[in-house]
Amino acid sequence: YAIEAFKVNSIDYLLKPIKEEDLLFSINKFEKTKKSSASLDTIESILRTVTGQETTSFLVHYRDKLVPVSATDIGYFYIEAGLVHGCSFKNQVYPIEQTLDELENSLDKQVFFRANRQFIINRKAVQDIEFYFNGRLAINLLPQPKEHVLVSKARVPVFKAWMKSS
Questions:
Q1: 27, 20 Cβ separation under 8 angstroms
Q2: Beta bridge partners of 90
Q3: For 97-118, what is each residue's pLDDT tens digit?
Q4: Judging by DSSP bridges, how do beta strands 57-62 and 65-70 pair with one another?
Q5: DSSP structure class, residue 135
Q6: Which tens digits make up the pLDDT trace of 29-45?
Q7: Which residues of 120-151 are buried (b: 16+ CB within 10 A; e: fewer)?
Q8: How far apart are CA 72 and CA 74, in angstroms?
Q9: Higher per-residue confidence, 72 vs 40
Q10: How far apart are CA 21 and CA 29, in angstroms?
Q11: Would the pTM count as exceeding 0.90?
């Protein structure tokens, strides 16, 4: 059983009767692992950049052409009628061929934040933030989208931490 436990990346293997010092050792080992996993986002971002997996630009259909658009020129991505669009800071809307989940995983997490199921926002697009009903936040973006961009009560601390980070 111990060998099987380690094959599935377990933290430790305890046998009954469990000794207090063995349990404390396992808990400390878990805490150390948990702390190091906090920087996994940073490591993943670096790996995406080095391997070229981080999306830095898009080829988008605009009229009868394919136009290169830098990811940093996009103020926000959103879903409308089941299709993903990117809205530039110049208020031009482009169809995007990726899903929001794919974008979330490929964009720079220091610049872009998944506000909710419909929006991924660029930090530079945030004009201000209003307190909204029931502990949520309403984000005012420039350019302004057609609907409110709300951050759920559960995601508010994550959003605030993202906004405070450089």
A1: no
A2: none
A3: 899 998 998 898 889 999 999 9
A4: antiparallel
A5: G
A6: 887 776 655 455 566 65
A7: bbbbebbeebeebeeebbebebeeebeeebbb
A8: 5
A9: 72
A10: 12
A11: no
